Amino acid sequence: MTGLESLPFLVLYAAVVPFLVTYFVTGRLIRFLHSRKMTVIDFHKPERNLVPTPGGIALIAGLVAAESLLFLATREIGILAILLTTVIASLIGLIDDFHKLGGIAKPVLLLTAAIPILAFSTYSPHLVFPFFGSTRLTLIYPILVLIAIPVTANTINTIDVLNGAVSGFVAIASVPLVLALLLSGKEILALAAISLIMVCVAFFFFHRFPSRIFPGDSGTLGLGAIYGAIAIVGGVEIVSVIAILPAILNSFFFLTSVKGFVEHSKIKVRPTIVLGDGRLMAEKSREAPVTLVRLIALDGPLGEREIVRIIFALTAFSAFLATLLALLM
Amino acid sequence: MLRNVIQLMGILTLAFFLVILGSVLIFVVIVPLPNLPGRLGIILTGISKAVLSTLVVVGWVYLLKTVTGIYLRKKIG
């Protein structure tokens, strides 16, 4: 016993450290990326301003710092699996940020991110349902784990559509995850989920409208992978699926309307049109892909901030449904 | 705008029930089905489970796609 695994230290590792690391690294990263001219155009602004990217490096720094300290303090092997899964997915995202990967290459490469969870056997092959109890899936579950990480990583990636959307979305969707883990007595994993929230909140200060940095694929894939890894290792899969329903529906709408895995840059008709005053209008053409933003803007043009607020409202509603589910289990 | 948000919450609620219902059908009803006797029985049971699970997923996708299609057509005209 060194005392470093006592509650105040654990809260420090899970909440304070990731927030401070992400906040300070992001601030410095913005200046560094600007000086190196590593910027992209913000297509949703009429003035087409340049925004530094990838900010995922700051998100990874915060997550690695928090999960490493949590692992060193608790020696919980599940935390190590979560940490490695996050690092692998973020590195794949980083490769994609500098050298665009194809529509199918990304999910295939992301299969490797699930290996730490499988290698350390940090999962329980049971799915728990409200009213129906738990069901044992000894043979199928490892296959589901392999698929789940690329699916969550890509799902979170698709919600990175507007300023602040993905960081705010993950922060809100992670709240029911914390509650479900606490209810099932997995406090250490709940702390891992709290560190995810804190990283997202710290990044949101720079990512919110008007964005001063974009997370890039390194950030979004890392956030999605850690979210999926916490859900699997903590055994709160169904709750986590419900909490990210807006992103799942966004992916579902997109994939069913474009009929397959296609890189966003290859889409001919955009789902929304940017008006001269910066508001977004839904594309009326039947050829345009269906996305959550397009559905939100169907009643008339809306400002970017308004659309992001609606995304957050829908996420809060899903988080509420997920919390209800966690309480029923 | 508020009406649109409420309608989208309706789609989310439908998806919520579909996820629960679909997962229960696949993982609680179909997957634990006992195998038929013999080697051929095991193969046939496996194929049947895969087909039934696929049907549930296809039904899930069809229902949600239809609801979204109706919503889009109503809005776009």
Describe the structure.
- The complex is a heterodimer of chains A (329) and B (77).
- Chain A contains 13 helices and 6 strands.
- By secondary structure, chain A is mainly alpha-helical.
- Chain A has one domain (7-244).
- A two-stranded antiparallel sheet of chain A has the order 1-2.
- In chain A, helix 7 packs antiparallel against helix 8 (187-207) and helix 7 (165-183) packs parallel to helix 13.
- The mean pLDDT of chain A is 91.
- Chain B is an all-alpha fold.
- Chain B has one domain.
- Chain B is built from 2 helices and no strands.
- Chain B has helices at 2-30, 38-76.
- In chain B, helix 1 runs antiparallel to helix 2 (38-76).
- Chain B is elongated, with a radius of gyration of 18 Å.
- Chain A binds chain B through residues 127, 129-130, 132, 135-137, 140, 238, 241-242, 245-246, 248-249, 252-253, 256, 282, 284, 290, 295-296, 298-300, 302, 306, 310, 313-314, 317-318, 321, 325, and chain B through 1, 3-5, 8-9, 11-13, 15-16, 19-20, 23-24, 27-28, 31-32, 61, 64-65, 68, 71-72, 75-76.
